[in-house]
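Two quick folds needed for the group meeting slides. Do the first one here.
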Amino acid sequence: MVRHRVQTGRYTAKMDDEFVVFLIGMRVNKLWKIHRWIGPFLAMPRMLRQLQRHPDKGLLGARMSLGGRTITVIQYWRSFDQLEAFAKNPNDPHLPAWKAFNKNVGSSGDVGVYHETYRIDAGQYESIYSNMPIMGLAAAGSSVAVGKRSETARARITK
């Protein structure tokens, strides 16, 4: 399915099992220190390309967002175990990038990084997409039309 085409009407996301939402980002605190932030800046797209080539690692989808000096990537994972395995595997690109960040930036304050991890039980989420392309959780799972039993946020989250 073409993900950029607008789906007219109201849709919601469907995920059959537990999943993980992982927010990860960086903030450029000192713009003029490009030698400090260019490495972390380029590392994330490399990691995402690697994960897209290997869907068995557990990444279901990702979306990058820019707000001021902060870049955030919202990732959807099949499980926390797969996210953790990717983060700790020396043969995957995360661990070498994390070690390089600690060596080159450390606690200098030039670049900030953060992440938040949320484990979501099946049925314990809610979404709505009105006249939008398939994106976010709907791209990670599936996009389904809103029906009479899923008209409200409360109805969608208590399925």
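Then this one, please, same format:
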Amino acid sequence: MHVTLVKPTLGRTERDDRFIDEARMEPLQLGVLAGLTPSGVDLTLTDDRIDEIDYDAPTDLVAITVETFTARRAYEIAAEFRARGVPVVMGGMHATLLPDEAAEHADSVCIGDAETVWPRIVTDAAESRLAPRYHGAFGVPQPGVMPRRELYAGKGYLPVSLLQFGRGCRHSCEFCAVTEYFGRRHYARPVAEVIAEIEAAGRRDLFFVDDNLIADPEAARELMRALIPLRVRWVSQSSIDHVRDSELLQLFAASGCLGNVIGFESLEPADLRAAHKGPNLAASARYAIEIATLREHHLQTWAALTLGYDHDTVASIEETCEWAIANRFTFAAFNVLMPYPRTPLYARLAEEGRLLYDGRWWLHPEYRFNHAAFRPARMSADELTKVAWACRRRWNSPGSILRRAFDPATNMASLERLAIYLAYNPIYRRESFKKQGMRLGTR
């Protein structure tokens, strides 16, 4: 039997070219799926972000991982394979949140985590009895399973190994699909399995893709203590409250953490309250103490900022951009607030009649990447789109990159930190400009 694993691209650029992601990272979820595949099954990993898909290559089953932003392209790919008589199974967060929608484009849908059902899916496909739905139980990620990293060879991924320690988050932010997906639960892997995977991967630079690495602080402490002797460099995602735990913060620094993606989201407390962003509500005014503490530990910050809350104005968003530059963050993402399906935010905006693109922006032919998909309270949707793009342009300008580099506490704290800053900021700039206004899907 032959199984083809597919990672869809976002869509098309303004030049009508298929989007090729220069900053692409390993598709960890497909590596794990490959590790779960029964022996004797041949596998092909096709990454649509770089590979041309050969729809006529012999295969018995196609498995497509679906995210909300790649759903339109995923459905296009599925249609091509199904037209050739090849069965398609879809999984991932979007397929779990909207299984009925995914079922319109697939022969089978995997709902939830694949660990407990993927071997059965493969066996059923081999015996021509693929079921319409499979329900995978949520639990500890990839128990006893190593990703098949040899499938990544030759695809030009960034030289960073992606891993997961845990899944889920215990917070209940209004905008977050992770909360809906996992139901405010968190599952952590045994530390010994994570360490074994790091050693097998053989790289020093790591990115933990956890939704919130410190969702279980005690488990996070155990992991970081085990990382110390490995002398690795790593980055993950963490809520702001880790800065208020001095022992945890010291372990971050001692274990080789370069810094974290931190969801600051907004500078306006009223917006944080409305979003139920609990960890941020206890932060100091404009996060001054937290940022100073991060700098004391020489931790570089990847700031995630969300634009378009009900108290935002064009002027306040522009001020947020200047605040980020003044704090010399290593990276910052200026994300338009997105109403992801089945989130409380989506439900509220739908009830208020503020959703655009008939509610399903991820499938609408007129929607463009990084554009507003709802009517903000204090500006028009077009104004939100324009000011968010202005922030990204300002942040990624040569002057901003140069100004932010000169920070002896973070970006110049060592030669290796400066090298990382100088290597990745130009990549981030190119990708930001290339993706702006992209069409989702390629048709």
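Slide caption for protein two: The longest helix spans residues 415-435.
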